[in-house]
Amino acid sequence: MKLRLIAIAVLFTIGISPALAIDPPYQRQMERLAEIMGSLYFLQPLCSPAPEDWRAQMAELIALDEPDEDRRQRLAGAFNVGYTAYSRFHRACTPAARAAMTRLLTEAEKTARDIHTRFAE
Question: Most buried among 6, 11, 54, 106, using CB within 10 Å?
Answer without folding.
Answer: 54
